[in-house]
Amino acid sequence: MEFEGTETVPVERSAAWDLVTDPAVLTACVMGAEEISRASEDRYEGVIRQRITGIDVALDGEVRIEERERPEWLRFTGTGTDSRTGSRMDADVTVTLTGEGAATELAYDVDVTFTGRLATMGSRVLRRQVRANVETYFENLVDRVGARA
Predict the structure, then answer these.
(1) CA 16 – CA 107 distance, rounded (Å)
(2) Cα separation, 30 vs 17, whole angstroms
(3) Are strands 2-9 and 103-115 parallel, antiparallel or unpaired?
(4) SS3 label, residue 15
(5) pLDDT per 10-residue tile (average), the chain, 149 residues
(6) What is the b/e burial string over 28-61, where b = at least 16 CB atoms within 10 angstroms of the residue's CB?
(7) Chain centroid offset of residue 109 CA
(8) Between the N and C ends of the chain, which has fewer C-beta atoms within 10 Å?
């Protein structure tokens, strides 16, 4: 399933880049994120716990930055597996950062696939969950920036 959209954060582009690649900010902003750490310059590891239609899911996985042109854009892939449900999530995400004075527009394209028990929930349920995760991430990011001001 594919998503695209834009959000604006009230910081300049280089500061926005630092925010979207900071593991502490990721942990604070990604819904249900636990223990996100930077394993190398281009690789992060972590766990995301969520409850989806009554099923507890703990996706243990990694994110790899595949391509980037700091501070203009980056493309990363992510995988997460939940051993209890035998589920897997794969994501391919591109984020383009466009400076707008003291603010930055983040344009994103997300392609997510699920296998295992999660895939049996139906695309409507999963689409709603992924959309909620994307919206929550950006709301938390904007709130975090506002708290620093």
Answers:
(1) 12
(2) 16
(3) antiparallel
(4) helix
(5) 92 95 93 92 95 90 96 97 95 96 94 92 88 91 78
(6) ebbbebeebebeeeeebebebebebeeeebbbbb
(7) 11
(8) C
Three-class secondary structure of residue 16 per DSSP? helix
Q: Which residues contact 133 (CB under 8 A, 6 or more apart)?
A: 30, 31, 50
| Long-range Cβ contacts of 17-24 (<8 Å, 24+ apart) | 17/70, 17/71, 17/97, 19/141, 19/144, 19/145, 20/74, 20/95, 20/97, 20/106, 20/141, 21/65, 21/74
For 21-60, give the DSSP string: T-HHHHHHHSTTEEEEEEEETTEEEEEEEEEETTEEEEEE
Tally of residues, the chain: 149
Phi, psi of 10 (to 5 degrees): -85, 55
Q: Return the half-sphere exposure (C-beta side, CA atoms, 13 A cut-off) of residue 48.
A: 23
Q: Does residue 144 sit in helix, strand or coil?
A: helix
Going by C-beta distance under 8 Å and a sequence separation of 6 or more, which residues neighbour residue 51? Answer: 57
Tokens standing for 99? 């400076």
Q: What is the pLDDT, as a whole number, of residue 148?
A: 62
